[in-house]
Write a structure and sequence with these properties.
This protein folds into 2 domains: about 60 residues, no CATH class; about 250 residues, no CATH class. It is about 40% helix and about 15% strand. The protein contains 13 helices and 13 strands. The strands form 4 sheets. Strands 6-5-13-11-12-10-9 form a 7-stranded mixed beta sheet, sandwiched between helices. It has a two-stranded antiparallel ribbon with strand order 1-2. Strands 3-4 form a two-stranded antiparallel sheet. Strand 11, helix 11 and strand 12 form a beta-alpha-beta unit. The N and C termini lie far apart (about 70 Å). The mean pLDDT is about 85.
């Protein structure tokens, strides 16, 4: 018995020491979580002691301890296998191998939703943007990118109690239509399309390229742009999703990547990198139209398609929106795309401006 206890103690000590030793010897993990890692904090800032040093140091070590991705994967895999649950803060393990972004849970349950008055604030804000665009001779449209759970609620855990409260995405879409503000109803498009084939990745929070193409065609119809056949594609299995890297960062989970035969007709000043650049601009000889897109991560898959459809595409991922770009660029077309889970942020911004 004493021997077993000694072995157990040695294993525990080794498990604690090995990552620390490797870290200080220069071992570096691969960052597969698609987020910036915490930086080493300074002990003194502006000539005085940094009161946040210990908490920042804790973040730094947590992000960078050696073998982190393997240990996190092992712990989470055991968590799911033994408890059929996941205790992480970024993801929810659903049915049939689906993973969902944890921040979308409130929307799925119908809790902490906006009030009708708050929805009106957003509508009034967007109405003023539309008026500004139209005063310059342009067209405007707004689109909410649905949370994956809004398209595949059947794959969310059964233990979650779903209310019948009105959802932000539905209230806003209805209010925009009532006010005559052009809206791309991506939720309706994708709910219909999912009966034909998958429109979101299993281990990612985003729509796949098939879903993106269907949404693009609706944008094209609104703005009078060229459309594509959404069923003319090839498939490769080489994409690992963002949520997979949250839960199982040391492993790969290749999902199908749909590839469309888009014309190689646009150019950019430098290689496109959405992780690095808040502003992306492309040009083509398709037409003389300028399209300004305010977007989040859901806009990334739209970029290659949009770039082939207009003479100039300017994509901007700043939030709050830099609306002075409308005056600066004089765009013919303006699209705002925002994911469902962040509609409350749009309300907060509108309210801060007095709407």
């Amino acid at each position: 018995m004493k021997t077993l206890r000694l072995i157990f103690v040695v294993i525990v000590i080794a498990a604690c020491l090995v990552p620390s030793v490797l870290m200080f010897c220069g071992y570096k993990n691969a960052n597969r979580e698609n987020r910036p890692l915490a930086q080493m904090p300074k002990l003194f800032t502006d000539g005085s002691f940094n009161e946040e040093f210990t908490s920042r140091l804790d973040d730094y070590v947590e992000d960078r301890f050696a073998l982190r991705e393997y240990l996190v994967t092992a712990f989470n895999a055991a968590d799911v296998a033994l408890l059929s649950d996941f205790n992480g803060t970024n993801a929810v393990i659903g049915k049939k191998n689906h993973i969902f972004y944890a921040e979308t849970t409130d929307d799925h349950l119908g809790i902490n939703q906006l009030t009708p008055g708050q929805i009106d604030s957003i509508v009034n804000f967007l109405a003023d943007i539309m008026a500004e665009v139209r005063s310059r001779g342009g067209k405007f449209a707004f689109m909410t990118a649905p949370n994956k759970a809004s398209i595949y609620p059947e794959y969310m855990p059964s233990r979650l109690y779903v209310t019948d409260a009105p959802r932000n995405i539905d209230m806003l879409t209805a209010a925009l239509k009532e006010r005559g503000i052009p809206v791309i109803d991506a939720k309706a498009i994708l709910l219909e399309a999912k009966e034909e084939r998958t429109v979101y990745y299993e281990h990612d929070s985003h729509w796949n390229n098939f879903g993106a193409m269907l949404v693009y065609n609706s944008i094209a119809e609104e703005f009078g742009l060229r459309r594509y056949d959404p069923r003319d594609y090839t498939v490769e299995y080489d994409r690992t999703g963002d949520l997979h890297n949250f839960v199982y960062p040391s492993t790969e989970y290749p999902e199908e990547r749909i590839i469309y035969p888009l014309p190689d007709s646009y150019k950019s000043k430098r290689p496109i990198n959405f992780d690095r650049d808040k502003e992306i601009e492309t040009t083509s000889e398709e037409n003389e139209l300028t399209l300004l897109v305010y977007h989040d991560s859901f806009g990334r898959s739209l970029q290659p398609i949009l770039s082939t459809a207009v003479g100039r595409l300017s994509m901007n991922s700043y939030f709050p929106y830099k609306l002075d770009y409308i005056e600066e660029l004089e765009p013919d077309l303006v699209l705002i795309e925002l994911v469902e889970r962040n509609l409350d942020m749009l309300y907060e911004h509108a309210a801060s401006l007095g709407y």
